């Protein structure tokens, strides 16, 4: 390490400041959380930023650091020091990593009660050619779409469940990928986007076999949450969602069985559409549970989602879907039903934020009609859904899992173990229970649009494990399964902000409408977002 001043003589770094910097650097390499916490100034004004976002407040930074883990081995090869006053200094240091590449640390230090502490820091990490937690493979582009069309200029991250000619499907598992054959055709859901002018940026990660909503993958790592550093990204469409949220792609082509579009959209502040069940062709898509699997898209804004829906769900755009402009040609009513059971299921901060949104809506000119009602006990939806999903998931994957013991991560392995125990009688009973629930909810949706928080609360921290993760998963699925059971379209819109351990966090607002009204539903969601912006 050197603190040579360069061409002109500069004031040397004070010895106690240099000692504090050295102690901090050693703690970084050792991932000594106690020393790292003690190195940052206490209070709510302390800041730390990097490419993933800005953290404000000592406690928020501490929570993030606990989720991040250590840094790769490196040495500090240069420090530049500039005094900012008697008790403040700027340090800019260059780090060189043992594995190649350099990074930059910019820190404002303050002497507080005789001790130098970091008041603000910004980290520029070494350049990464490919974030393997987000991408399986990537290009610029990986596959060129039509040179013109309504989607021209958009890039797409494809969830690793869709067939792309010449590539294998990996399903989030390296053993499955190794044994897969290259696809000879491309899935219609992919070709629809290409025909519209979009280009494929790459194949993005998924939770193993899409059997999760957390977003973590024990083989490839956990993709970053582009809206809340240190939080889980949401799954199983974690890769496409993170790619879109971090700017790696404009559109995520994904799947939603029990919330795999809506959950990551909510966690990362994205727009996410689960389409009507069976509306978009699923040929060339690796299934999880065919009774509920459907295609969906993730975008950063409503305009992009509208462009994709207008093209892919119209007669002219899609290769296989029938025209939906019958149902979607007319606007949905400016009328919402808020299900009380959903509000009873969310965290207090989420409910408060959603209730405030309703108050804002009620106070505007041309306010929508909003009523509150009941759609039934959410456990009555969740229990039979889980049984049917498990039975189908085991039929689709059980033979492979028996042939490859130990090939999947612990959480997914346990899910499949339970699925293997579902009997034919269990499945038949669950299907019988689902039928009246489906009919009842479809009847409700014939006259109104459901409006509710997408999930119970903000994304959990990446360090959340065990019972905490399972509790969040079950609470989330209780909210997301009704739309799946009804086969209805659902869109998540980033309209709420709630407090979390990691700072202000996004939570989506979900709109659910009747089958076939997908395009009109996106229009309605955009109207709602625009109205709230103007309120």
Description:
The chain has 535 residues and is of the alpha/beta class. It folds into 2 domains: 15-124, Nuclear Transport Factor 2, Chain: A, CATH 3.10.450.50; 135-376 and 437-534, Amidase signature (AS) enzymes. It has helices at 15-30, 33-39, 58-68, 174-179, 188-195, 238-245, 262-267, 302-312, 325-328, 340-345, 348-362, 378-403, 410-420, 424-445, 467-486, 518-534; strands spanning 47-50, 53-56, 74-85, 88-97, 102-112, 115-124, 135-143, 155-159, 199-204, 251-256, 271-274, 294-299, 335-339, 369-373, 449-453, 490-498, 505-512. The strands form 2 sheets. The protein has an 11-stranded mixed sheet with strand order 7-9-8-10-12-11-16-17-15-13-14, sandwiched between helices. Strands 2-1-6-5-4-3 form a 6-stranded mixed sheet, covered by helices on one side. The protein starts with 14 loop residues before the first helix and ends with a helix.
């Amino acid at each position: 390490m050197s603190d040579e001043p360069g061409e002109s003589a500069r004031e040397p770094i004070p010895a106690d400041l240099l000692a504090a910097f050295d102690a901090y650097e050693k703690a970084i390499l050792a991932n000594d959380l106690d020393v790292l916490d003690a190195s940052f100034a206490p209070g709510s004004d302390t800041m730390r930023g990097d490419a993933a976002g800005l953290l404000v407040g000592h406690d928020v930074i501490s929570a993030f650091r606990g989720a991040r883990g250590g840094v790769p081995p490196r040495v500090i090869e240069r420090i530049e020091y500039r005094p900012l006053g008697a008790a403040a200094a700027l340090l800019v240091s260059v780090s060189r990593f043992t594995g190649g590449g350099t990074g930059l640390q910019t820190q404002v230090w303050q002497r507080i009660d005789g001790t130098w502490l970091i008041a603000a820091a910004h980290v520029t990490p070494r350049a990464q050619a490919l974030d393997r937690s987000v991408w399986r493979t990537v290009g610029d582009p990986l596959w060129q779409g039509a040179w013109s069309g309504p989607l021209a200029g958009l890039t797409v991250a494809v969830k690793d469940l869709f067939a792309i000619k010449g590539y294998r499907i990996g399903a989030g598992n390296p053993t499955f990928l190794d044994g897969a054959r290259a696809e000879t055709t491309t899935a219609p859901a992919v070709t629809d986007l290409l025909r519209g002018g979009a280009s494929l940026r790459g194949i993005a990660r998924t939770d193993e076999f899409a059997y999760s909503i957390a977003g973590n993958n024990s083989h490839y790592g956990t993709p970053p949450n582009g809206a809340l550093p240190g939080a889980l990204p949401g799954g199983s469409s974690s890769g496409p969602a993170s790619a879109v949220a971090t700017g790696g792609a404009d559109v995520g082509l994904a799947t939603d069985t029990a919330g795999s579009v809506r959950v990551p959209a909510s966690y990362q502040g994205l727009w996410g559409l689960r389409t009507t069940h069976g509306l978009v062709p699923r040929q060339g898509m690796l299934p999880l549970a065919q009774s509920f699997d459907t295609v969906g898209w993730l975008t950063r804004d409503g305009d992009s989602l509208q462009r994709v829906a207008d093209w892919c769900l119209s007669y002219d755009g899609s290769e296989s879907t029938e025209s939906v402009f019958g149902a979607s040609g007319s606007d949905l009513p400016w009328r919402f039903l808020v299900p009380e059971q959903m509000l009873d299921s969310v965290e207090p901060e989420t409910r408060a934020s959603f209730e405030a949104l309703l108050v804002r809506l009620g106070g505007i000119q041309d306010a929508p009609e909003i009523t509150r009602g009941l759609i039934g006990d959410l456990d009555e939806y969740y229990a039979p859904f889980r049984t049917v999903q498990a039975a189908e998931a085991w039929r689709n994957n059980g033979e492979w899992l028996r042939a490859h013991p130990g090939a999947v991560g612990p959480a997914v392995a346990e899910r499949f173990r339970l699925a293997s125990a579902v009997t034919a009688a269990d499945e038949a009973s669950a299907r019988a229970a689902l039928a009246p629930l489906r009919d009842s909810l479809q009847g409700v949706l014939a006259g109104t649009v459901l409006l509710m928080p997408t999930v119970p609360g903000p994304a959990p921290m990446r360090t959340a494990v065990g019972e905490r993760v399972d509790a969040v998963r079950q609470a989330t699925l209780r909210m997301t399964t009704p739309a799946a059971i009804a086969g209805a379209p659902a869109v998540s819109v980033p309209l709420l902000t709630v407090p979390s351990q990691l700072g202000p966090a996004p939570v989506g607002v979900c709109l659910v409408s009747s089958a076939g009204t997908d395009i009109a539903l996106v229009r309605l969601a955009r109207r709602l977002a625009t109205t709230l912006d103007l309120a």
